Amino acid sequence: MTTRTPLATRDSELTRRILTTLALVVALDAMLVAVVGFLLAPWLAPFGDAVAAALGVASLPSSVRAVAVAVPVVSLFLWLQLRYTRRQTLTAVDARVVADDEYTDLRGRVTRLSSQADLTPPALAVAETSVPNSFTVGGLRESVLVVSMGLLETLSDEELDAVLAHELAHVKNHDATVMTLATFLPAVTSGQFSLLDAVTPRGVSRGATTVALGVVAAVLFGLSAAVGGALDSLSGLVLVVLFSLLFGGIVLGVVTTPVVSLAGRLSRSREFAADRAAALSTGNPAAVAAAIRRLDSAVPVAPNRDLRRSAGVRGLCFLPHGFETDRDEADGFSVTVETHPAATERVARLRELAGELEEQ
Asked: How far is CA 353 from CA 117, 260, 276, in A?
């Protein structure tokens, strides 16, 4: 029989899943950078030589130079990815970062709970929606804690403290940052952001753009086969770009499936860990359980959502109903997994924790 330590603050399983998910995200980003670098090598060679000279590795073997150049490039890509995902996630729920003199009671609660958790208070954003929920998006220096007006209007003071403490636990565990990074590629895969949409003129359908790009690709392929030389090199590059626009989503869907799976498992683990941390920091497991039950019952039937827009947000939220109001479900490929444990399971664990605390 194993002895449980109910008040332990370190969760080795959660740490392992955080590190595994982060490692996979970094590996996929490195792979994407490597593929793009290989395809653009003839045009990027002068730039690569300049970077290698600046780093003092120009005299080293080519493989070492490639790694020395790739590391800062991948780091920059991760930073941009994190910033972009944060901005798009806040935009998706129409959340606004509030000033210091707004929502003073809410800010006071966050400051007090952050102090108890030995954290710098995160930025605070409010979404003008009646759907009660919350989530935290991570950052390298500062996270953003997002709550909805519906959440503020639905919960009691003790329940609101419990939810805020839950979100702050995600910041302290650093899983908010990893989950924010992990939502980027799946969001691209599911159509939340589409390269094809980016090149489609306003008023033109996606189907028409696809046909036009296919015709251009066929013409360029014919010209490259007939003429060769410099045109062959240029058309090869253009063909790769067109292929990425036309079929990149399918390829990314296959590549990012492991990220979706690992992120789903991490999300389940982190919700249990954050529930536990909130119960311990507030000393009130019953309030955490009550908040889960109340918010779960607030949306008894999942609305028909545009999964391509809401999948990433739902995975980050306190409860998986997200922030979306009813909307028609969109067509298109989407990779989704169960990101949250059942509310009943979360409540059961909190009741068990409450019993353990009473025995102390």
From this structure: 19, 30, 8
